[in-house]
Amino acid sequence: MKKICLIDSTYPINTRTNKIYNSLVNDFGRENVSIIAWNRDGRENKNTENYYIYEKKAAYGNKLQKLMGLFSFKTFINKVLNENNFDIVIASHWETLLLASELKQKDSKLIYENLDIPTSSNIHILKLLQKIEKKALKKTDAIVFASRFFVPLYDFFTKDKILLENKPDKQLFLYEAKEHDSFNIVFLGVIRYLDILKNLIDSVNEIKGIKLVIWGDGPGYGSLKNYAKSKENVFIQGRYENSQLANIYSEADLVWAVYPNNDYNVKYAISNKFHESINIGKPCIYAEKTELGNFVSSNRIGFVVNPYSVDDITELLDKLKTNPKLIEEATNKLKMFKKKETSWNDDFSKLENFIRR
After folding, report:
1. In angstroms, rounded to a whole number, what is the distance separating the alpha carbons of residues 333 and 125?
2. Is 63 exposed, middle or buried (0-12, 13-18, 19+ CB in 10 A)?
3. Cα(258)–Cα(187) distance, rounded to whole angstroms?
4. pLDDT for residue 204 is more than 80
5. Considering the entire predicted model, what is its pTM?
6. Torsion angle, CA of 52/57/58/61, rounded to 10 degrees?
7. At what angle do helices 94-102 and 123-137 cross, to 10 degrees?
8. DSSP label at 190?
9. pLDDT at 68 (0 to 100)
10. Considering only CA atoms, which of 324, 216, 342 is closest in space to residue 278?
């Protein structure tokens, strides 16, 4: 049986890597799948079986501390790889790929888990990161893409390419739409990109009969809650459990899935909300001038907006509120679109086949 190792520069490992881990365990057995991770904030290590945890503090968001820590993390990875002789190494994110490519053993296969592409607002830094990634890919045997829009950016890579988007592996949940007096916009997720969320709040505040409900936690939670406290039609609910999702979505008319379209990665990434939207048949609003926004518009399965224009957001929300048939049409298109979409398990089988051969 193949011995497989996943490498992640965070602990706990990111949700996508964890999903891949669980699928690998299901196909190859827990005893054959290991994880190397970096515990950067000193949290309690709750995993022991087949986990190799590197303990060194490097504050999230502090790029210098992370860069300094990568060198010693590389030494840690090298030690684990030499002690285990894995057949397959899966590196999550480009920086981990760089380390793994330099440590690649003769008889192992290296897979790049391309969950995000290198990004920077500085064009010179972006070009440098892309050059570093391209060099690491020379020793890489396959790329797993988290977005269909990443694939064309890697035309230069001639080995195996596997598309594995963050699709649900089964029906998320069943819900019945509830009657409500107001027109409801819902946001669920990590609370960040405050400038965009504040624009949304300002827009909602301009329209009578509309309500915005924000669910989630994150670095911007306190600031956003304070910003919205005087807005009577905005409700900041905080952290939520999966058991609440059916109830949350049952009261939503639209879901907000807008991220900064001036970020290079966002231009090509696919939001998890996109797959949730297809799975449950609830239309979302996305950022314009992104590949996902273009895709949604051309297939008429959602709506797009300028994230940085309060006027544009207000105009769209007002139009959708006063023309409910637009949402109904998008909902019907989503139901048809869902029939053509593959599942996580369908797509994962391609990665499984690559590993087995």
Report:
1. 41
2. exposed
3. 9
4. yes
5. 0.92
6. 100
7. 40
8. -
9. 85
10. 342
